Amino acid sequence: MPATIVMGGQWGDEGKGKLTDALAGNVAVVVRANGGSNAGHTIETEAGVFKLHLVPSGILNPRCLCVIGAGVVVDPASLLAELDGLRQRGVDVAGLRLSDRAHVVMPYHPLFDRLEEARRADDEIGTTLRGNGPAYADKVSRRGVRVADLVDEGALRRKIEREIEEKNRILVRVYGEPALDPASVLDELLTLGARLAPYIAPSEVIVQDALAAGKEVLIECAQGAMLDIDYGTYPFVTSSSPTAAGACQGAGVAPTQVRRVIGVFKAYSTRVGGGPLPTELHDATGQAIRERGREYGTTTGRPRRTGWFDAVAARAVARQNGVTEIALTLLDVLDGFDHVKVCTAYRLQRLESTGGHSESAGIVESVVRHPPAGEAEWESISPVYETLPGWQCTTSEARSLEDLPDGARAYVRFLEDAVGAPVTMVGVGPARDQLVSLPLVTRTELAGAAG
After folding, report:
1. pLDDT, tens only, 218-243
2. Sign of the dihedral defined by the CA atoms of residues 369, 446, 259, 31, in that order
3. Residue 300 DSSP one-character state
4. Which residues lie closer than 8 Å to 282 by C-beta, 6 or more apart?
5. Which DSSP category does 336 fall into?
6. What are the φ/ψ torsions at residue 418 (nearest 5 degrees)?
7. Which stretches of 94-178 are DSSP H helices?
């Protein structure tokens, strides 16, 4: 079947936008499946750098139809501002379609996002404060407003009156905030809905019609699988499922219609906000990776936490999502290091009783090769590393397997074996053409090349 999923294999910011843009020239439809304006996909072309949030990364390919799927939560004002910015730069956005089933980030959602993060004090999640979490919460509690409601004044009025009455009770009585005016909210959303009306469509029908016609469909995920609401580092996760299964649900595609699942992994690890990052580096090496990789959030500008590649988390993601191939990005960031490290296991410490009494409790250490579920377990983890020689030369000019230095090829081979999927693409810079394509026989070739 002609559907391909592009998903993040780590904690987001892996370079999915660049990869989607590179592949979009050969597909008919690109679908954004999940997330909201908290996503930040950066694409560098001959026309400059584009930073996308809600618009699918295929928008820079004029022959490609771009669909925002039902799994996305949409801030109407943010989407319109993004479209206006693209038009001002000469990008044709007529090929955008917005699912009528997608949920709306209401004006009160960012307010609740900020209030909840402030309430958590030193235990905050580290959200982008765009209101996506509260929007997803209203969605699953069946209190949400959908895009279809934006063009139905009667339905919108009823929902706003009901919801704002409830939200005002919480704002005033719990947080001591002023009440919202439902009439103002209604007027604002009706105006935004009128502007969005030309783009609103039954997206799942468009996608299924394309698949039925044998056209290539590319599903673009936001965030990364280690932020998944079920299998990520809970509670420091996103509010949706940025997984292969979540991609199918959000895009309106059946699992049996998927041919390829491309897991996008950085050659190292990064994370924005709170939560576990077992390989995090707090030294000069971590800072060097941050500066070389320009590791600052596309949406927030916050510096990203950096660390060595975590193959334990990556292997779990590859297995759970049926990753058929890996796109390894930002390999060039590791150019010049005399060695590189890969985490291949976690050393986990537990406080356990040795005789049934608390006074006889002691520290028990074990080595695990899968991500744990408990918050306390994540806090007690330390990485077990394999150290590989670096290559201490540039890879940014490489365009084929043979162009990569021996050390870089050996590193790619090591990651393939550690993660359990073949690397078919290697990113060596931010530009469109800085992408090394490797055939699916790469593992054999790399084995020969590395001796």
Report:
1. 999 999 999 999 999 999 999 889 99
2. positive
3. T
4. none
5. T
6. -70, -35
7. 108-120, 132-140, 153-173
Of 448, 378, 385, 99, the closest CA to residue 250 belongs to 99
Task: Tell me if 196 sits within 8 A of 146, measured CB to CB.
Answer: no
Joined together, the tokens standing for residue 303 give 């510096």
Which two three-digit tokens encode residue 118? 């402030």
| pLDDT, position 129 | 75
DSSP state of 303: B
Question: What is the distance between the alpha carbons of residues 122 and 120, in angstroms, rounded to a whole number?
Answer: 6
Q: Write out pLDDT tens, residues 71-80.
A: 999 999 999 9
Per-residue CA distances from 77 to 84, 140, 387, 405 (Å): 11, 23, 48, 47
Residue 419 near residue 411 (C-beta atoms within 8 A): no
- Active-site positions? 13, 41
> If 0-12 CB within 10 Å is exposed, 13-18 middle and 19+ buried, where does residue 173 land?
exposed
Q: Which helix (H) or strand (E) holds 266?
A: strand 258-266
Q: Does an H or E element contain 269, and which?
A: strand 269-271
The DSSP result for 339-406, as a single string, is: EEEEEEEEEEEEEEESSSSGGGEEEEEEEESS--S-HHHHHTEEEEEEEEE---S--TT--SGGGS-H
Note whether 436 and 398 are within 8 A (CB): yes
Q: Would you report the helix, strand and coil content of the chain in percent, each value rounded to 5?
A: 40, 25, 35
Q: What are phi and psi of 295, to 5 degrees?
A: -85, 75
Sorted by sequence, the CB contacts under 8 Å of residue 277 that are 6+ apart come out as: 11, 269, 270, 271, 305, 307, 310
In terms of Cβ atoms closer than 10 Å to its own Cβ (0-12, 13-18, 19+), residue 168 is middle
pTM of the entire predicted model: 0.90
DSSP code, position 122: G
Cβ contacts of 376 within 8 Å, gap of 6 or more: none
